[in-house]
Amino acid sequence: xxxxxxxxxxxxxxxxxxxxxxxxxxxxxxxxxxxxxxxxxxxxxxxxxxxxxxxxxxxxxxxxxxxxxxxxxxxxxxxxxxxxxxxxxxxxxxxxxxxxxxxxxxxxxxxxxxxxxxxxxxxxxxxxxxxxxxxxxxxxxxxxxxxxxxxxxxxxxxxxxxxxxxxxxxxxxxxxxxxxxxxxxxxxxxxxxxxxxxxxxxxxxxxxxxxxxxxxx
Length: 217
Known about the structure:
mainly beta; 6-stranded antiparallel β-sheet
């Protein structure tokens, strides 16, 4: 099962696209002005900056159910205001894909919000929409997933925070498909889930890769 997980995830790895550009403005001898960065072209790739908080396990005392939750901060340093609609998915070592929030009762995020005791934290849908530039406009939130079956390794996939796209071959059909630039964060559960205390450690990256990493999916 674990080998299928690695093969499947490695097939989604893509190349990281650079995103830097600079130019000097014309300077009048009698009235010097500061250089200006040219406007970003519509075909340029941009990436929002995603700062991942710790992944933790929440146990609902009333129901006995368990949930994974993680905080995040989203920064816009792209040079333009953006309209964003991030999407979070959890992929486990068996290849099961769970969208954020699916199967999570409405009272669970509210209980986690009270536990975190941070008035700035928003549920995932609260960060969608306009995102201004710079740290002052950063959005802070958290995501929640049902813990599901016992597992050792899983990945958090964050899409909708880049406009990057690539054409890749579908491993099942052999056809070319459009894949979107996605941030991938791998976690490794140390032992039995019931014994877990504190955050879930990041998984050790495979040789030649990094964690977190950008993939195309």
